Amino acid sequence: HVFVCENLRDPADARGCCSAKGAAEVRSRLRVLAKAEGLKGRVRINIAGCLDQCAHGVTIVVYPEGVWYGAVTVDDVNEIFGSHVLGGQPVERLRLAHMR
What is the pTM of this model? Predict the structure, then answer.
């Protein structure tokens, strides 16, 4: 399972929100890659509500490992998908250190 936070907050909230940082595009790209690899039914790409990491958005959590990624952009998705989802190796440069 890959959960992508798409929480939407008021623009005045200092924490920001994943939705305003491109979460829908990140999730969409992950879904395209999963489909292209023929992983339908084996890998789930899901929308998550608030993961309480708003200041680190776009936030993604990959289970069953429980690896948290922050500040993910659509440009990072191919690396996360190839290295972690397909290869089992987390992308260390994007991991949220305080969630280890």
Answer: 0.91
